[in-house]
Amino acid sequence: MHPTRLLLLVALWLPLGGLLAAPAAPSFAAATSAFLQKYVRADGNVNYAAIKKQPAELKALLQTVQSFDAKAASAAERKAFYLNAYNVTVIGAVVERYPLASVMKVPGFFDKLKFTVAGEQMTINELETNKLRKPYNDPRIHFALVCAAKGCPRLSREAFAAATLDAQLAAQTKRVLTDPTFIRPDAKAKKVQVSEIFKWYAADFKAPGPALIHYLNQYRAAQPIPATYTVDYYAYDWSLNEG
Questions:
Q1: Fewest CB atoms within 10 Å of the CB: 58, 104, 167, 198?
Q2: Distance between CA 146 and CA 89 in Å, rounded?
Q3: CB 29 within 8 A of CB 80
């Protein structure tokens, strides 16, 4: 074949080959966002019944959670991954046992059940502590992790992504700390009732009493809590965050 004709055939084939190439698979964050937007309501409650009926998307996400290469990821990529992995793993554990009134009805839900995350076997508590709390020392993670209870912060319908992670955590923290169902100032009693999360993880916030009010007010510029208020804790609602 004449060289000129060969070059022409190659030139014609290359665009066609590009058209026939399979589209790139969505990233874990993008796939998780699509899943959350489909099954999580604006109030943060999860349609577990619908996921149970059509589990293919959840199963695909859980496979990615299991096979993710954390060692090859950057610090921000790992942090975003483990935040998303926590929420997806919890949803998966609930769906597997659904219908379910509360995760507290499952013995060892947080500290006995083992899950594969990035090739490692771990409990949900180990995922939270060893992969997020200890490595990053960022109390905002407590407002991003949702343990399938109504007492938790509202589950975001947007997955966390490395490129926008800090802004997402700041926005999520502000949403949670200005939510009147989560932070409950009482002007008449001159006190503020807060989630027991602040008691269980007091060391993470390094902010008991008045110092905790200062922490909250960093995200409540429009509705600051007076520094003279006392701090109290309302009972955690462990009923399933379904809807």
A1: 167
A2: 10
A3: yes
